[in-house]
Amino acid sequence: MLTIAALTIKKAVTLFALVGPVTMIPIFLAAAQGLDAKAKSRFARTIGISVTVALLVATFLGMPLLGFLGVSLGAMQVGGGIIVLLLAIAMVLGKETSFKGSSPETDGRGRRGTSIVPLAVPLLAGPAAFSYVMGNNVWQTAADLVHVVLPILLVGLSCWISFWVASNTQKQIRQSTLDVVERVGGFVLAAMAIEMTASGLRQLFPLLSPAQ
Fold first, then answer.
1. Are the C-beta atoms of 194 and 85 separated by less than 8 Å?
2. 92 belongs to a structural domain
3. pLDDT band at residue 116, thresholds of 50, 70 and 90?
């Protein structure tokens, strides 16, 4: 039992670092700009649930689905890296809302909505997190499912809580401060996107890997 608990904690911490909800707070605030408090809370909950569902699907169906479609993990990393890079450029230029396409979306009563793409997938639940859960989904007994499923549920909950807290404290932060954080976050995100793309290219083209 202690082994399962230790493995669960280890996987949860690693997956939390790969998903990185705290680093995505500026992007969440930009996506939720213009929404009222209730709508922001619903958006935070939707993001948390979406991340959880995406990671669970990747855990149990990821490898068979990729094999069926003939898509390699490297190709998924390159595709995700390109999307993240485009968002990073948009953040630096202050055009992230237009990139996410959240402005034109409205519900039946004309109120503006938000999109879980690309925030939930592939920024939070992205190639790195997908590859981790797909590579650590081995289970033989019902007890093993604890360290397979519980870390994903905890990380999804952490996304929900992180964004809910951020949406409730946003009014205490000046817009100029948010703008600076957003621009800096764009540069960091661009570096992450390049790293993600490079990792995918190395998988697609092994000759690009440094000689051992």
1. yes
2. yes
3. confident
